[in-house]
Description:
With 290 residues, this protein is an all-alpha fold. The protein has two domains: 1-119 and 255-290; 122-239, no CATH class. Helix content is 66%, strand content 0%. It contains 13 helices and no strands. Helix 2 (37-62) runs antiparallel to helix 3 and helix 3 packs parallel to helix 5. The model has no long low-confidence stretch (mean pLDDT 91).
Amino acid sequence: xxxxxxxxxxxxxxxxxxxxxxxxxxxxxxxxxxxxxxxxxxxxxxxxxxxxxxxxxxxxxxxxxxxxxxxxxxxxxxxxxxxxxxxxxxxxxxxxxxxxxxxxxxxxxxxxxxxxxxxxxxxxxxxxxxxxxxxxxxxxxxxxxxxxxxxxxxxxxxxxxxxxxxxxxxxxxxxxxxxxxxxxxxxxxxxxxxxxxxxxxxxxxxxxxxxxxxxxxxxxxxxxxxxxxxxxxxxxxxxxxxxxxxxxxxxxxxxxxxxxxxxxxxxxxxxxxxxxxxxxxxxxxxxxxx
Length: 290
């Protein structure tokens, strides 16, 4: 498929995305009023995908970086909402490419810092058996003690399993960041955006023509931490790497409805208590090691 055909399809998809955003926003309000929780969760997940797509299309079609950041921000705060209110474990997993990527691309420090401290019920289990996302969070908040004692050792254990060899560049990225080794960081990101691009982006159908995740995520995080790696790869758009927050960000439209807002606040408190009770139980059993 040639570039012009790709751009034509982008335009068509972008128009559909904008329509879908309006649809999902309306559905979320509708299903909250009808008290159908699983449909609220499903529509929230769907709208996160639409915000993600709109962010990428804003860069590819419009080259409008401020819109990229705004749509990334919307995807990010919807992600936070999903984790806080429904204890969603999928969005704190490195394979949930768009969530990690959009939080960082938003350039909104409040959102980035909130995401770095998010925990769902399975956080401690995931940190042990699927540690990439918790390592990313730790690096954002400069928690090198977590990386040294928990994150990196668990990642090294994961690499002993043959199918997990594809995360070796991820390990090298985190080690490079801890060592402030720009070459190691650059080499890891380059492998993810070239040799492993198709493997690591196979779920991002069509969009993997334009960006490579987690390569872009890691490059953005390196820049955020003052390590301005230069990578000449169109799948890592250079315009997205510098930290330049928008002057203003707009929140989720459906949260303007007081009933919707109260619904999510109630869910957030329910989930908070559920997590605390679960972790307390694990601690009493001696199953919570950190």
